[in-house]
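name: query_chain
kind: protein
chains: 1
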Amino acid sequence: MKNTIKTFLLFFMTALVFTSCSDDDKNPPTAGFTLSNSEPFQWDTSTIANSADAADEVTYAVTGGEYVWVDDATIQFLEDHSYTITQTAVNGDGTDTSSITVDVAEPNNIYTLDGTEMPMTSNAFWYDASAMGGTIYIRFLADVDGQDNPNLLKLFPESGLDPIQGTYTWDDSGDIGTYDAGMTANYAGFSFDWTTQGDNGDNLKIKLVYEDANSDNNIYDITLSSYTLNYGNWDWSIPEFVSEGTKSFSISYRGAIDPIAP
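structure:
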């Protein structure tokens, strides 16, 4: 009887030691990651930095809106939406998850005139003024309270409709560093006008940030970081532009450049 009890106790102790050692040997993973851009705007990218511990495999799931993977670790957000990115870390001893929610804002498309910010109310669009002796250029509209018509913003980055690709500074001859810009306010009556006489500079940049299967839906960043406009009126009795001074002007736009309307 004593031998039986000793045998049972020995078996129990052996099983306890074996079980304890097995639990100690387990090393389940701990999920974790960070984002390079936690406050993105629509069409921004954010790169994932994996900080998971003891993981043999790490996968990611994204919910909330449309997106594309630029590469294995970089996501581009195609909508202004709330996204949740979930990492799943796996090894032979278990699974763990970690999630980050990102609120993607719509682009802040504005222009400034002497430091006063104004919202743009249209996409950028190509305009063909060649029938009036002008050129093909990019326009924007911005509604202003009290005016009969929106402010008309104008950029003259090139003389034709060659595709825009990459990051460039422009002018109508294709040389880097010169371009034209302009703005007309309440232009139905030509009550006042800001224009230019061909300032030089490298402050205009047009960058492709999202390439769509339909090139009309490509998304560009258009930035004019600083520019000096001549301020005055068009005197039809002369006829010529009469300058009354200068104003500082800048543009920050992200969106499509709509084609010329047929």
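note: The mean pLDDT is 80.
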